[in-house]
Structures are given as C-alpha cells and as structure tokens.
Amino acid sequence: MKQIILETLKNLNFTEYEAKAYLALLEESPLTGYAVAKSSGVPRSRIYEILDSLAMRGDILVSPGNTPQYTPVPAKELIKNRRMKAEENFELAEKSLAEFVRSVNERGNIWNITGRNEILDKVKACILSAKKRILLEVWKEEFDELESELRQAVKRGVNVTIIAYGEIVSDFANVYLHYMGDEITEEYGGRWIVISGDDSEVVAGIVSLGEDSRAAWTMHVGLVMPITEVMIHDLYLMEIMEKHRELLEESFGENLVHLRHKFSIHPDFKKHYVK
C-alpha cells in the first residue's frame, strides 16, 4: 500500500525523495528534519534540500526556530491545490495554443494510423472536436468504446447520426441499422469504421485486425467530401429500403444481392481488403 501511495505522489510531480518525506510527515508530524530523514529513509545529506523544495511548493509547512519542525499540508488540500493548478495550466494551454491553426500542409495531407486502439483514439479526438454534426459508420464492438464520447458530443449540441452494423441501441443518437448487418461482415471479412466530423475531417479504416489495423485521417477536401457524401447516400438507401423494401427486392433480390453481384469483381463475391 505504501508503495502505491509513493507512486501516486510521483505521478503528482513529486520526486521519490519528496514523496517519501511527505508520506513520513503524513504518518507523524510535526517532525524535525533529522526525524524526517530517519523515518522516510531520505539521506540526511539531502533532507533539508528536499524539505525546502516541498515548503517552497506549498506541500508542507515549516515552524521556524533553532530546530525547525515540519508538518504536511493535509492530503485533501494537496489534491485540491494540484487539481486547481492543473486546471489553470490546461486553461493557459488552451488559450495559448488556440492561436495556432492547422497548417495548409496538414489540411492537404493524408495521415496513416496503425493499431486498433490508436485508430479509436483518433476517432475520439474527432468526436471531441466536432461542433455541429457527426456521421459515424460503425460496428457494435467499436460503438461500445465510443459511446461515452458520443454522448458528450450530443450534450454539446452536436447532431450524431450512426450507420450501425449489428444491434446498436442508443437513446441519444440517430441510429440507422444497416439492412445487411452480419452479411456485410462476412462479405468483407472484417469490420471498418468511418467518421466524418463537421464535414471537415474524416477517419476511415479497418479495425478488426488488432495491432495490424490500418486507417487514415485527413482534412483534404478532395477526400472528406466524397467520403461524407457516400455515408449520406448510405442513409438515403436505408430510408428507401425501409419504405420500399418489398418492391426493391422484387427487382434486385434479397438485400439487393443482384446489384451487389453486378458490381463485384470478385468471383467468390468476397472483398479481400483486409487480407
């Protein structure tokens, strides 16, 4: 337990010696510098340097005199101070970095992303930056990991529309269940994800290969526009299938299979994009 607390303090920007000295004071105080060194295991040659550092940072208090004594700031107060400082730093960073806009080169490039977790991290970043609309084509496995960020986006006033493969249920988004579902997974041999944020950036790729998953992120209008429009046309088709499925399947077969065969170049009707 003590080691966990030391590691936690180190995560709050304490050095190892500072963490040991502060923890010793939490366990017993007030103490002289000599007593802190003895209790904490910090070398006596370093203890006053360490205590001065903690005092200057406001993590401990000093009672001056011929033999100064030290007492810690209570743990709750320490955490509160750290949180306030972190929030101040985040606000400062936000204001400072807001002056920098994405460069023309960045907008014109296509950036590769490798690994399923890394792809989902980029999708989450896209969700967090969206202000008006998110279009998301996704399987249930990935939706479950993105649900929290999507829900927060809706709370910010973002319209979220999902083209769903599998039984995705949502009380906050517009969900369109793809009329093929599992058949698409079988036909393509894997799962992909596509997101369009505010019609200005796109992340698209395969997410069913673990660390070998591949995706691309871009703000290039020459790709963002057609990819976004393909997703919109998928929504058109699902609306049409919802209202006129029987008539369409009379002409084109179940789930429009004849159309899909007509435009497939693979003899086995399997698309091997993920091999």
TrEMBL record:
InterPro entries, A to Z: TrmB-like (IPR051797), Tscrpt_reg_TrmB_C (IPR021586), Tscrpt_reg_TrmB_N (IPR002831), WH-like_DNA-bd_sf (IPR036388), WH_DNA-bd_sf (IPR036390)
Domain of life, per lineage: Bacteria
Protein name from the UniProt record: TrmB family transcriptional regulator
Occurrences of domain Transcription regulator TrmB C-terminal (ranges): 110-171
Transcription regulator TrmB N-terminal domain residues: 9-75
SUPFAM superfamilies referenced in this protein's UniProt entry, alphabetically: Phospholipase D/nuclease (SSF56024), Winged helix' DNA-binding domain (SSF46785)
Pfam families per record: Regulator_TrmB (PF11495), TrmB (PF01978)
